[in-house]
C-alpha cells in the first residue's frame, strides 16, 4: 500500500504511517544506525504494518521536538528545510541561520544533531522578524575625519 502525501483534496491524516525512506526525504538526514539508535532509545517506535516497518507521525513529531498545534499538523507534515536552504531563501550565511535557531529566534526542529526548519515557520519568521531587521548591508561605515593639530590642542 503506497503512502500518499497530503494535498488540498486529501487532508492530513495523523494516523498515516511513514516509511524510513519518507522520513529520510523529510529530514534530508538519516541512516540505518540513526534509526537503530532512535528505536533503541525509545524515541522512534516502529510499527509493523502489512509486514513492513513504519512509523507514526506522533512519534516522528516527538523525536523532532514535540507535537505541533492541531491546526498546524498539515504544515508540519511538509518536508523540512535544511539550514543551507533557509540561508539561500534569506540571502544570508548559514551562521546567521544557526545563530537564530540556537537563540530560539527562528523556530526549528532537531533531528539528531541537525537543525531542520518547517517551511510555514520560516515564512512566518520572514514576515515578522527578518524583514524588520536593520538593513546595514552594503552601507559604508562613517569614517571619523582625523583631527587637525589645532582641534586636538583644544583651540
List keywords for this structure.
155 residues; alpha+beta; three-stranded antiparallel sheet; two-stranded antiparallel sheet; 8 helices; 5 strands; disordered N terminus
Write structural notes for this entry.
The chain has 155 residues and is of the alpha+beta class. Helix content is 39%, strand content 11%. The chain contains eight helices and five strands, in the order βααββααααββαα. It has helices spanning 20-27, 32-40, 57-64, 73-76, 83-90, 94-103, 119-128, 149-152; strands spanning 17-18, 46-49, 52-56, 109-111, 114-116. The protein has a three-stranded antiparallel beta sheet with strand order 1-3-2. A hairpin with a 2-residue loop joins β4 (109-111) and β5. α5 (83-90) crosses α6 (94-103).
Summarize the structure.
This protein has helices spanning about 20-25, 30-40, 55-65, 75, 85-90, 95-105, 120-130, 150; strands spanning about 15-20, 45-50, 50-55, 110, 115. With about 160 residues, it is α+β, with helices and mostly antiparallel strands. Strand 2 and strand 3 form a beta hairpin.
Tell me the strand percentage band. Answer: 5-15%
Question: In order across it, which strands form the biggest sheet?
Answer: 1-3-2
Shape: elongated
Amino-to-carboxy terminus distance: 89 Å
Oligomer: single chain
Number of strands: 5
DSSP summary: helix tally: 8
Q: What structural class results from the helix and strand content?
A: alpha+beta
**Mean pLDDT reading:** 81
The Cα radius of gyration reads 23 Å
> Main β-sheet, in a few words?
3 strands, antiparallel
Order of helices and strands: EHHEEHHHHEEHH
The helix content is: 25-40%
Low-confidence blocks of residues: 1-11
Amino acid at each position: 500500500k503506497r503512502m500518499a502525501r497530503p494535498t488540498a483534496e486529501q487532508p492530513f491524516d495523523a494516523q498515516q504511517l511513514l516509511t524510513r525512506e519518507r522520513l529520510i526525504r523529510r529530514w534530508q538526514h538519516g541512516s540505518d544506525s540513526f534509526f537503530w539508535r532512535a528505536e533503541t532509545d525509545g524515541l522512534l517506535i516502529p510499527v509493523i504494518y502489512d509486514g513492513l516497518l513504519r512509523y507514526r507521525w506522533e512519534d516522528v513529531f516527538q523525536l523532532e521536538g514535540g507535537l505541533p498545534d492541531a491546526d498546524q499538523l498539515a504544515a508540519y507534515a511538509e518536508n523540512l528545510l535544511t539550514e543551507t536552504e533557509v540561508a539561500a531563501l534569506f540571502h544570508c550565511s548559514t551562521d546567521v541561520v544557526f545563530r537564530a535557531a540556537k537563540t530560539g529566534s527562528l523556530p526549528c526542529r532537531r533531528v539528531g544533531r541537525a537543525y531542520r526548519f518547517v517551511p510555514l515557520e520560516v515564512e512566518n519568521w520572514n514576515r515578522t522578524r527578518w524583514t524588520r531587521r536593520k538593513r546595514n548591508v552594503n552601507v559604508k561605515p562613517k569614517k571619523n575625519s582625523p583631527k587637525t593639530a589645532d582641534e586636538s590642542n583644544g583651540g
